[in-house]
Amino acid sequence: MVDENYVSMLPTSASQSWSAKINGQQQELLVQSNAILLDVLRDQAGTLGVKRGCDMGTCGCCAVLVNGQPRLSCLILAEEARGAMITTVEGLADTHHLHPVQTCFAKAGGSQCGFCTPGFLVVSSALLEQNPNPTDEEIKCAIEGNLCRCTGYQPIVDSIRMAAEIKQNGNQTANLTNPSSDPHPIGPDEPTLPPGDAR
Ligand code: FES
Ligand code: FES
Known about the structure:
The protein is of the alpha+beta class. The chain folds into 2 domains: 15-88, Ubiquitin-like (UB roll), CATH 3.10.20.30; 100-176, DNA polymerase, domain 1 (Orthogonal Bundle). 30% of the residues lie in helices and 14% in strands. The chain is built from 6 helices and 5 strands; from the N terminus they run ββαβββααααα. The chain has helices at 37-44, 100-108, 117-130, 136-142, 154-167, 170-176, and strands at residues 15-22, 25-32, 63-66, 69-72, 85-87. Strands 2-1-5-3-4 form a 5-stranded mixed β-sheet, sandwiched between helices. β1 and β2 form a beta hairpin. α2 (100-108) packs across α5 (154-167). Residues 171-193 and 195-199 have low confidence and may be disordered. One FE2/S2 (inorganic) cluster binds next to loops.
């Protein structure tokens, strides 16, 4: 129970009506006037694909598109994105098909533990919208704000380059984004156990 003499060090913030188009759907929410966009997206809009890494603008895990531009949602007040079109990783695929960057991250090993992946996917999708045929240097420049602890980055660059090639070649796109295709068609080999040890 809060002591009646307790004085909050933080000013209380009023809740107010807020709306934005998130992944193509208009959402009307009641948010606090000092709410951070990352919190609104994860805790109220339900887009849990947006990851909280550092919470201070250094890892890129929380990247989303605000009106088509990559932004770090941990550094933006929701108020700044009022009325905007916001795209999170959940909004990159169309109804049935993965975005080429999603397909290629799976195919070329651009994702391992996956925690950083939503941020990379969002940023690289924006890159390919603006520059359909980036050089490796341009790809590295675009993802310089995104940190990955697992991949060593080269598979990520390879994945984005592959996605650029696919986006420029429609017939391959249809094949690679077949919703029924398994991005990991070959699983690990079955372990060979001596007779009698099989469990
Ligand atoms: S959580 Fe936003 S940059 Fe790390
Ligand atoms: S895949 Fe694990 S942090 Fe990037």
